[in-house]
Specification:
By secondary structure, the protein is an alpha+beta fold. The chain contains five helices and 16 strands. It has helices spanning 21-32, 64-67, 83-92, 151-162, 212-221, and strands spanning 11-18, 35-41, 44-51, 54-61, 73-79, 96-104, 108-114, 120-126, 141-148, 165-168, 177-181, 184-191, 202-208, 225-233, 237-243, 249-255. The strands form two sheets. It has an eight-stranded mixed sheet, with helices on one face.
Length: 261
Amino acid sequence: MKVTHYRQGEPCWAELASHDWQGAKAFYQKLFGWNGFDMPMPEGNYTMLQIDNDDVAALYQMPVDMAENSPTHWTVYFAVEDLPATVVKVQQAGGQLLIGPHAVGEAGKMAVFADPEGSRFAVWEAINHIGIKRSQENNALCWVELACRDTAKAKDFYSQAFGWQCKLANMPAFEYNEWYVDERAIGGMMAMTEEWGDMPTHWMLYFAVEDCDAIAAKAAVNGGKICVPPTDIDNVGRFSVLADPQGGVFSVITLKDDVYK
């Protein structure tokens, strides 16, 4: 399904900052069948990843100073209607402004934040580029998930920052919360237990795929790593957590046929 507009607070962009731009580009093109359109930048290339010429994600080579202190990582962007107002709301709620706000040519305006527990995310006020142009189909972003240690604090923060509602999901095995924009679930949240060790809190990006097991195997063959093997989720589908050859972590999921209905 093609997308032409995002509402306040909806996930609207997926971006990979990589230690090896060319290697990452080859890996994801093989994995998802994405096309790549390179856009020159002062310090390298910014690659738009596309399905039939529709942008669905992007990746870029991290500058040397950034790469020294940051692993390869995916970032989720949330749509906002008023970037300056969002900066104020995020900071008042206890978040930290890390980058920006600044304009990205005529495409839009952005800023990067960390929530009170350190999970990073970005926001996007669109001008000429809305963000991801495909939804509810394979090889496109379909879900984002916050893994944190203090779910009560996270509920307060994101409700203030974006106006989200948080509702307990029907997950018999463990407690799982879902984020809502109006009546639409746009993401989830789970508490990190002792089993997670010292892993930092983070946002996880999920990409829909036709066959979770086949994609996981394909990732491994092409130099990636299977962090969590394909696993069934009651009432939802089958997922796997993967890492690309540079260590960028993401998830894939084969959704049950009725999830989007």
